[in-house]
Every structure is written in C-alpha cells, then in structure tokens.
C-alpha cells in the first residue's frame, strides 16, 4: 500500500438523546447541569488508489437492536459512497471487542483482521462475564473472532504495529485492556483515530472518563498521551463517538467525513 490519499469517518448510527450523565463517569462531580450531548457511531477507512484499510466495522443489526441501537445507514452503503467494495478490503483493524466495533466482520470475506493480543486474552479470560463488562460484548462475536484467529485471519498485535505503509496501531489501555488507536500518515499530517480510547473530545480536553472502563489509571494515562499528540500542529486526534466530528470535518458524501479536511 503506497501513501494514504484519504481518511474518512463513516457515520452509520446515532443516539441524539444521549445525555452527559449517561456518557461520563460520575458526571455529578463536575457541577454542571445535565444536557443532551448525543452519541454518533462511526467506523473509518484509509485509502489510496490501490488498497483500503478499514478501522472497526460497526455493530450487527440484531445485536445492536437488543441494546436499543439501530443502524441508520448500512456500512456497505457508506463504503460504496467512498468508492470501496467490501470484498476488495484486505485489512481491517478491530480497535477492541465491544459490540459496536466488531459486528460486521462477515462483510469482509477477503480481509485479514488485526486486534491487540491483550484484548483477545481479556475477553476469553476469567472476567469477561462480569455484568459491568459483559453488556458491551456479545459472546457469539467473541467465539467468531476466536474462530478467525484459529483460521489465521485474525492476527494479534502488540503495542506498536505497522499494518500497512503509513498506518500503525498503538495500544492505549483503559477503556479496555487492548484498546487500539490507529495513526494514519496522509499529506504530511497524522490522523489519529482514537476509536474508544476517547469517545468524546471532552475526555481528552478535560479528563472526563467515559462511563465504561476496565482501568481508570491507565485510562487517564491514555488521555495524557492523546492530549500530548493533539497539541502538535500536524496531528488531528479524532474521538470515536463525538457528534462534533461531523461538524469539524468536511462531509464529502452523506455520512462520510474527510478527516484530512476541516470545515
């Protein structure tokens, strides 16, 4: 894969009714009135003329519906809007095991998948069934990813891994033990797709933890690192669920936001 020419956030669902008190852990500590802040659901794609790397793949419609989430635009339609056929995708990064990030692996029959080793170990280990954690993970999807691993289609990565030229994954634990962020080099800039290492800009800017995490101390350390990166003039850190993303970046097709072009 040669140099990256485009990086898109693809919005497939939303929850405009999501309130700050739902999203942030102990929101009452901040002395602010509760309000609707919304939550958008994205997956991402980095492209050049020859190849594509997809980062996450959204939630399965039935699994999402069981958790009161509905797909608004099918991922296949969003990919078509940016000129990609799922069968042509060779690489898919799975940032972590939560249902809204691993739910459509079957759309990519020719892809190799990548996940942090510590992530798969955690969700096949002794704590995966604890109610505080298990709501976010579908057991059938864990089993499916174990099967992909046995078949050689899911590769386990460690803390800093090159997926393709210009695309690296970095482990940022806290939300989950193996949470990955993906750094994409494009046109002299770096787009850092935080996925759920930071759901909202407020997590990075104001140290406000999202309500789901496995290790708060590591979560704060990840925020520190993301904040350091975002202070660089040549780096854009993009959170995983913030509606502000769709306001900050150019919408080139409905639901398709160019992360190399701010509005």
Automatic annotation (TrEMBL):
Cofactor (UniProt): Zn(2+)
Pfam families listed in its UniProt record: Lactamase_B
CDD domains, per database record: AHL_lactonase_MBL-fold (cd07729)
Keyword annotations of the record: Hydrolase, Metal-binding, Zinc
Keyword Metal-binding: yes
Occurrences of domain Metallo-beta-lactamase (ranges): 40-241
SUPFAM superfamilies in UniProt: Metallo-hydrolase/oxidoreductase
Protein name: Metallo-beta-lactamase domain-containing protein
Source species of the chain: Mycolicibacterium goodii
């Amino acid at each position: 894969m040669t140099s990256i020419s485009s990086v898109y956030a693809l919005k497939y669902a939303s929850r405009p009714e999501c309130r700050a008190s739902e999203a942030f852990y102990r929101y009452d500590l901040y002395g602010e009135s509760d309000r609707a802040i919304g939550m958008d659901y994205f997956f991402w794609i980095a492209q050049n003329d020859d190849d594509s790397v997809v980062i996450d793949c959204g939630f399965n419609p039935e699994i999402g519906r069981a958790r009161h989430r509905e797909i608004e635009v099918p991922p296949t339609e969003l990919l078509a809007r940016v000129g990609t056929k799922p069968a042509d995708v060779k690489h898919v990064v799975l940032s972590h095991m939560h249902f809204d990030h691993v739910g459509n692996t079957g759309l990519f029959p020719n892809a190799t998948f990548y996940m942090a080793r510590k992530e798969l170990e955690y969700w096949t280990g002794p704590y995966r069934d604890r109610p505080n954690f298990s709501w976010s993970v579908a057991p059938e999807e864990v089993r499916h990813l174990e099967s992909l691993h046995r078949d050689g289609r899911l590769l386990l990565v460690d803390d800093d891994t090159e997926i393709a030229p210009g695309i690296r994954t970095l482990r940022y634990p806290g939300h989950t033990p193996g949470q990955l962020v993906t750094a994409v080099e494009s046109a002299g800039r770096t787009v850092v797709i935080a996925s759920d290492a930071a759901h909202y800009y407020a997590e990075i800017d104001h140290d406000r933890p999202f309500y789901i995490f496995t290790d708060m101390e590591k979560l704060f350390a990840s925020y520190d690192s993301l904040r350091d990166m975002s202070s660089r003039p040549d780096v854009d850190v993009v959170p995983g669920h913030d509606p502000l993303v769709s306001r900050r970046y150019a919408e080139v097709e409905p639901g398709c936001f160019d992360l190399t072009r701010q509005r």
